[in-house]
Design goal:
The chain is an alpha/beta fold. It folds into 2 domains: 197 residues, no CATH class; 128 residues, Rossmann fold, CATH 3.40.50. 21% of the residues lie in helices and 29% in strands. The protein is built from 8 helices and 20 strands. The chain is globular.
Length: 353
């Protein structure tokens, strides 16, 4: 596909505007174009015979005029704040946490014309399951597919490359706090709900896999990969015995890879051929969405992480065998409760490979 030049919206001025989101009344607009209602919880069985729960997401598209977009993709309509359906933390406590650390809404200027909201993140997992996946809803309203996509300035170019992999070419980088003449907003379809359970939209999984991998094409027979997605270069959530773990995995033909070193094509090539992926618990594990349906997923966490991440729900939908392996936390190394460096019991991990 010929790449169209990306457009950059020039922010009118630096500094904050007069609005602070916490000062605005909250408003939940009526759903305009509903694709699927949130459905009852699904109970799935893990390899240890325990059950976990997740739900099927509410999916819809709304259209607004003169909406302002800010932060993680929240909206301001007039003097009201719209939060629901726009974030992966779709419950009041998480929304308040996001807003409390934000500050005043900047003056992002005004964009004339008609756009589809994507928005942006510097976290790959959130870029994938919060923003990319919402675009699959456009296939229920195909007249929107050719419109320019609105992406937040500062989103890494390597993330934006995924939009082109999905077949989109009209992209506008917009300023935080910008006002849009007409904005089509697909709801976020992978989120944690008020009951703290993950919600996913099953059809979005298949559509995203189809658009990115072109699963309908005839693929040549190729060798399978066995991968360990290392976090050893990350600031937190690392293994203190990484060298020993990597050596053990190598003896089993499992390649240690650093996803940040790979191009998009290289990432998809390795993941789409995987028969086994060992990864760390968290947003980065979302890449397993593009693994084959028979790929075994081993996700390293620790006992205090009791919640279910979307990757486990996806695995259940796709039929991927999934095992959560608990390591021993050693020291907290990051801002979130899951950001602990851990030590792996090598013999116990080796036993489940």
């Amino acid at each position: 596909m010929t790449r169209a030049a990306d457009l950059m919206h020039q922010c009118p001025r630096p500094g904050a505007g007069p609005l602070h989101p916490l000062d605005l009344p909250r408003y939940t607009p009526p759903v305009q174009f509903e694709i699927a209602k949130s459905s009852p919880l699904v109970f799935a069985e893990r390899p240890d015979n325990a059950l976990f729960r997740y739900g099927h997401a509410h999916a819809y598209i709304n259209t607004y005029e003169q909406a302002r977009v800010f932060g993680n993709g929240f909206l301001i309509l007039g003097r009201s704040l719209v939060l629901d359906g726009l974030t992966s933390g779709n419950y009041i406590q998480n929304q308040k946490e996001q807003l409390a650390s934000y500050g005043a809404v900047p003056d992002g200027g005004t964009l004339s014309g008609e756009y589809v909201l994507v928005w942006g993140s510097e976290n790959f997992g959130h870029w994938l399951f919060t923003y990319l996946m919402r675009l699959t809803l456009l296939y229920w309203k195909p007249e929107l597919i050719g419109l320019p996509l609105l992406v937040k300035q500062g989103t890494p170019p390597r993330f934006v490359a995924w939009l082109r992999e999905m077949g989109f070419s009209k992209i506008l980088y917009a300023c935080d706090g910008c006002r849009i003449e007409k904005l089509h907003v697909p709801s976020v379809v992978t989120y944690r709900g008020p009951d703290q359970l993950p919600y996913v939209f099953p059809q979005a999984l298949d559509l995203l896999r189809y658009r990115v991998l072109d699963i309908g094409a005839v693929w040549p027979v190729r060798s399978r990969t066995r991968l360990y997605l290392s976090r050893d270069r990350s600031r937190w959530r690392k293994l203190v015995n990484e060298a020993e773990v990597s050596a053990m995995l190598a003896r089993h033909g499992i390649e240690r890879v650093f996803m940040e070193d790979l191009t998009l094509s290289e990432q998809l090539d390795k993941i789409s051929r995987a028969e086994l992926i060992v990864s760390h618990c968290g947003a980065g594990s979302s890449i397993t969405l593009f693994a084959p349906r028979d790929c075994r997923i081993v996700e390293i966490g620790f006992p205090a992480i009791t919640g279910t991440f979307a990757s486990r729900a996806w695995a259940h939908q796709l039929g991927q065998p999934f095992i959560r392996f608990d390591a021993q936390p050693v020291a907290r190394s990051g801002p979130l409760a899951i950001d602990w460096d851990c030590r792996v019991n090598i013999a116990a991990l080796e036993k489940i490979l």
